[in-house]
Amino acid sequence: MRVERADLYVTDLTLNRPFVVSYETYTTMPSIFIELHTDTGLTGWGEAVPDQHVTGETIGTVHTILRDELLPEIIGQNPLEIARIHQTMNRKVFANGAAKAAIDIACHDLLGKATGQPIYQLLGGKLHDVPPMAYVISIVPPDQAAREAKHALDETGYAYIKIKLGGPDLREDIARVAAVHQAVGPDIRICVDANQGWGNVTTAARAIRALEPYEPAWVEQPIPARQIHGFNALRNLTHLPLMADESLTDSNDLAQFIHDQSVELINIKLMKSGGIHPSRELATQAQLGGIRAQIGSMLESSVASAAGFHLAVAHPAIESTELSGPLWFTNDPGNLTYNLPRAELTDRPGLGIDIDESVLHSITQQHNEVTAP
C-alpha cells in the first residue's frame, strides 16, 4: 500500500456555547482535516487542532507544515509503517505535534481499514470500557457554574465535574469551586484546571491551599508550562494530587516528572504529542514510572476524539478521558456517538466513524490537494 495523494481541509467548527479558559475565549474552533488516498482505494482520515498556547502552533502554521513539508514526504510511503512515518516526520520538522497527529491518526485509520479491525484491537485489544468523562465548566460566575454542574449530573448523565480556573480574580476561582461543591455535594468527584493561569508557584500555592477544604480529585496545570520544576515546590506544599498538562509534551518532560515524583497524573493529548503512536509510548512510560494518565483534548471533532478513545480503552495506565469535543460542536462532520458519561466505540474498522462530506465542505475555508513533488 502506498499513499498517492492527500486532501487538506482548513475548517472552523462552531461551538454551541463559549468555551472559556484562562488564556482564551472560544466561540469557534479552527481545525484541519486530512484524507490520505492510497493506491488500494482505501482512504484514512486525520485531524489537527492546534493551540498556540499549548503546542505552539496556529491553524496557519499547521496548514503550511502539512501542505509544504510533511504531506509531500508521506506521498509514496506505506502508511501502515507508522513508526517509520514518525521517523520521517521527525527528521523533517521538530515538534509540531498537531500537524503530525493528523497524519498519525489517518495512518491508524488506514491500518484498521486494511486489516478489518478497529484501532483499539491493533493497540493490543480493549482492556476496559471507555473511561467516563467529566462535564467541563468554563470560567463562568460561581452561581452559573453551580447550576451547570447540577444540571450535568441530574439531567445529562455525567459522572463528575471539571472546573476551569485561572481567571483574573483568584477569589472568584475559589468561590466557583465552593459553589459547585455545595451544589453537587461531597460525594461527587470534582477536579480543577488552571491552564497555567495562576502564573507562578506562589500564587498557585495560595490557590491550592484555599481549595483543600473542597478536596478536588486533582489540580491540573497550576503553573506555566515551562516551570516544570515548580511542581516540586507545590508537591511539598499540598496533599492534593497534581496533574501536568501543558508541561507534558514528550518523553523528556515525562522523564523529569518521574524522576522528581512531583505529579500523580498526566494529561496526554494527541495534539501535543503527535498522535496515537507517541501518546501510547507516553502512557507506557507513565505506567512504568507509577504515574496515572488521562487522554485529553483541544476540543476536537469526532475524528481525533475517536482516535483518543481507541487509545484510552487499550492502555492500562489511562483511567479517564476528556474527549468531549463532538458534544460542543454544531457542525461536526463525523458521527462519533455518546451515551454519557461515555463515548460509544464501534467494532468497525479503523476509527469506526463516517465523515459527512457535505458538512465538511460546508465548513471548509480552504482546500488543497497534495500530490507527489
What does this structure look like?
- By secondary structure, the protein is of the alpha/beta class.
- The protein folds into two domains: 3-116 and 354-370, Enolase-like, domain 1; 121-344, Enolase-like C-terminal domain (TIM Barrel, Alpha-Beta Barrel), CATH 3.20.20.120.
- It has helices spanning 59-74, 82-92, 97-115, 119-122, 142-155, 170-184, 201-211, 230-235, 251-260, 270-273, 276-288, 302-314, 325-328, 357-363; strands spanning 3-21, 24-38, 43-48, 134-137, 160-164, 190-193, 219-220, 242-244, 265-268, 292-295, 318-321, 337-339, 342-344, 364-370.
- An eight-stranded parallel β-sheet has the order 4-5-6-7-8-9-10-11. A four-stranded antiparallel β-sheet has the order 3-2-1-14. It has a two-stranded antiparallel ribbon with strand order 12-13.
- It is globular and about 60 Å long.
- The mean pLDDT is 97.
List the helices and strands and how they pair.
Layout: E1 3-21, E2 24-38, E3 43-48, H1 59-74, H2 82-92, H3 97-115, H4 119-122, E4 134-137, H5 142-155, E5 160-164, H6 170-184, E6 190-193, H7 201-211, E7 219-220, H8 230-235, E8 242-244, H9 251-260, E9 265-268, H10 270-273, H11 276-288, E10 292-295, H12 302-314, E11 318-321, H13 325-328, E12 337-339, E13 342-344, H14 357-363, E14 364-370
Parallel strand pairs: 4-5, 5-6, 6-7, 7-8, 8-9, 9-10, 10-11
Antiparallel strand pairs: 1-2, 1-14, 2-3, 12-13
EC number: 5.1.1.-
Protein name: Dipeptide epimerase
Keywords: Isomerase, Magnesium, Metal-binding
